[in-house]
Design brief:
Layout: H1 17-27, H2 30-43, E1 47-49, H3 56-67, H4 77-80, H5 113-121, H6 128-139, H7 151-162, H8 168-178, H9 191-200, H10 206-217, H11 219-223, H12 227-234, H13 238-249, H14 261-267, E2 274-279, E3 282-287, E4 295-297, H15 299-310, H16 317-357, H17 359-364, H18 375-382, H19 386-393, E5 397-400, E6 403-406, E7 414-416, E8 422-424, H20 425-437, H21 447-456, H22 463-472, H23 478-481
Parallel strand pairs: 2-5
Antiparallel strand pairs: 1-4, 2-3, 5-6, 7-8
Helix pairs in contact: 1-16, 3-15, 3-16, 5-6, 6-8, 9-10, 10-13, 15-16, 16-18, 18-19, 21-22
Length: 484
C-alpha cells in the first residue's frame, strides 16, 4: 500500500475559559449568581471581596507575560486548570441570601406529611408486624397524599425486603386504617377514592349523598361533564345536581399539599434581576446588584508570583510547582472577575434593547401596548447572538411600576389584523380570555364561535390557532367549561 501525504485546511472554533465562564454565569438568575460568587470566593484564595486597587492590572499582565518564560509544557492550560481549580457552576440547595431578611422568608420548620401519619400510626393498636406493614405503606404515599404503588406490588416488596407475608386482605385492612387518618382523603389510590373518602366524613345531607352517588357510580360522566346523563340516571333536579357539584368542588383533590405550601412559597420567591421605573414620562433602568460584591485579585498572591518571576533562576521543582498553582489561581480569579463584568454588560444591553422595543408598556403597564417581539429582534438591537439573548432572558425577572414580570413575558409572535397592521399574539389571547370569562357558563363558546368573535373584531385567526392559544392559557374546551 502506497503512503500518501495530504495537506488539509481545517477551521475550528474553541471557547476560551473566559468565554465559558461568561456563558455559564449569564444563564444564572440573581440568587444563583450570588451563591456562585460566594462559592468562588471560598474555592479561590486569589479572589477577594473589595474595590480593586490600581495595581492588579499591571500585576495580572505580569502574571501572564512573566509566566511565559517557563516552558510551554510547564504552563500548558490543561496542566493546571482542573475541575477543582475552576469549580463547576453547581447550584446549592439552600439559595438563601442576605438580600432578604430572615424574618421575611416564608418558611417554617414543621413535620412532613409522612411524620404526621407516622405520629397517628403510633396511636393505633396494631401489632408489631402490622405496624411494619403500615409504615411501609405510609412510605409509599407521595407528596399529594396518594398511595403510589398498588397493593400487589407492596405485598411483593414486603415479602422480599422484610420477609413479611401479607396477602391482599391484610393489606386492604391496614390501608383502611391509614385512610382514617388526617388529612381526609389521604392514602387513596386514585382521585375518585380520594374524594369519596372525604365525603364519607361529611355530614350526610342530601347534597352530600347525591355527590357520593355521582362520584361512586357516574365518575366518568361527571369528569366529562355529561350532566344530562347524570340527571336522567339519578332522577334528581338541576338544583340538586348543582348542590352536589358544589360539594365535590369544595373537596381537596390533593390532601397532602398542605405540607408543601410553605416550602413551595420559599422556592418560588422571585428576586428581580432588573428594576425598571417610569418617572415623569421616562423609563429608568437599574441593575439589581445589592448583594453582588466588588471583586479583586489578591495582592498577596499577585506579589507572591511577581517575586517568583523576578527570581526564577535556580528554584527547586517544589517552588516551581507552587508558583504554577499560584498562577493558575490568579488566572482563574482574573477570568472570573472579567466574566462577571461581561455578564453585567450583556444583561444591561439586553434589557435596554427590550425596553426600547416595549417602551410604551413600561410607561403605561397596558398589556395591549406590548409589541410583537422575538429573540431575533432583541439580538439585532443589542448586538448579540440569539443564543446569548436566550440565556439572558431565561429565568430572569424585571420589577416595574406595575409588578414583577419574567423577561419571557415580553416575547410574542407577530400577527396581522384585517387592516394589515402588525399586532401581538398577546393581544389576541387577551380578547380570547375576556370572551371566555364573559361567556354563558351553561352554553360555553366553542372554538368555532371564538373564531367568529375575533373575526368581528378584525382578527382573522384560524380555528387551530385558537385552540393552540386556549391550551397555552390552560383553558379547557367548551364542553369541560360547561356548568349547571
Amino acid at each position: 500500500m502506497a503512503l500518501k501525504q495530504q495537506l488539509q485546511l481545517k477551521q475550528q472554533q474553541k471557547l476560551s475559559p473566559l468565554q465559558m465562564q461568561v456563558i455559564k454565569l449569564t444563564e444564572l438568575p440573581l440568587l444563583e449568581l450570588e451563591e456562585r460568587i460566594k462559592q468562588e470566593l471560598e474555592d479561590n484564595p486569589a479572589l477577594e471581596e473589595g474595590i480593586e486597587d490600581s495595581f492588579p492590572d499591571d500585576d495580572v499582565q505580569d502574571v501572564n507575560d512573566e509566566g511565559s518564560d517557563t516552558t510551554q509544557e510547564d504552563l500548558a492550560l490543561g496542566d493546571y486548570l482542573t475541575e477543582d481549580d475552576i469549580p463547576d457552576y453547581r447550584l446549592n440547595d439552600n439559595n438563601h441570601s442576605s438580600y432578604e431578611k430572615k424574618e421575611d422568608i416564608p418558611f417554617s420548620v414543621s413535620e412532613s406529611l409522612h411524620d404526621y401519619l407516622l405520629e397517628q400510626l403510633g396511636l393505633t393498636e396494631l401489632n408489631e408486624t402490622d405496624m411494619k406493614i403500615a409504615e411501609y405503606i405510609i412510605g409509599n404515599i407521595d407528596k399529594n397524599g396518594y398511595l403510589e404503588r398498588p397493593l400487589p406490588a407492596i405485598s411483593d416488596d414486603l415479602l422480599f425486603q422484610q420477609n413479611i407475608d401479607a396477602d391482599r386482605n391484610k393489606l386492604t385492612h391496614i390501608l383502611q386504617v391509614i385512610q382514617e387518618f388526617e388529612p381526609a382523603g389521604v392514602a387513596a389510590q386514585n382521585l375518585q377514592e380520594c374524594l369519596l373518602l372525604q365525603l364519607q366524613r361529611e355530614e350526610q345531607t342530601l347534597s352530600v349523598r347525591n355527590a357520593f352517588a355521582i362520584l361512586k357510580d357516574y365518575f366518568e360522566e361527571f369528569s366529562r361533564k355529561h350532566y344530562d346523563r347524570i340527571l336522567r340516571q339519578l332522577n334528581i333536579s338541576e338544583d340538586d345536581l348543582k348542590d352536589a357539584i358544589d360539594e365535590v368542588i369544595s373537596l381537596n383533590p390533593k390532601p397532602g399539599n398542605a405540607w408543601g405550601d410553605s416550602l413551595s412559597a420559599t422556592m418560588n420567591t422571585v428576586i428581580p434581576d432588573f428594576i425598571v421605573e417610569a418617572q415623569n414620562g421616562e423609563v429608568i433602568l437599574n441593575m439589581n446588584q445589592k448583594n453582588i460584591p466588588e471583586l479583586r485579585i489578591s495582592r498577596e498572591y499577585s506579589e507572591m508570583f511577581q517575586g517568583y518571576a523576578e527570581n526564577k533562576k535556580g528554584v527547586s521543582n517544589d517552588v516551581k510547582n507552587t508558583m504554577l498553582f499560584v498562577k493558575q489561581k490568579l488566572d482563574s480569579a482574573r477570568w472570573f472577575i472579567d466574566a462577571i463584568r461581561q455578564r453585567q454588560e450583556t444583561m444591561q444591553r439586553t434589557m435596554e434593547a427590550i425596553i426600547d422595543l416595549q417602551y410604551d408598556f413600561f410607561l403605561t403597564g397596558d398589556e395591549v401596548m406590548l409589541r410583537p417581539m422575538i429573540l431575533k429582534d432583541v439580538a439585532e438591537l443589542a448586538g448579540y447572538d440569539i443564543s446569548t439573548i436566550s440565556r439572558v432572558t431565561s429565568s430572569k425577572y424585571v420589577q416595574t411600576n406595575f409588578g414583577v414580570f419574567p423577561l419571557k413575558y415580553f416575547f410574542s409572535e407577530s400577527m396581522q389584523n384585517d387592516a394589515g397592521e402588525e399586532i401581538s399574539s398577546r393581544e389576541v389571547k387577551k380578547i380570547l380570555k375576556e370572551s371566555i370569562e364573559e361567556e354563558d357558563s351553561k352554553k360555553p363558546l366553542t372554538d368555532d364561535k371564538l373564531v367568529e368573535i375575533l373575526k368581528e373584531k378584525g382578527y382573522l385567526i384560524a380555528r387551530r390557532t385558537i385552540a393552540k392559544y386556549r391550551e397555552q392559557m390552560n383553558i379547557p374546551v367548551a364542553r369541560l367549561r360547561k356548568k349547571i
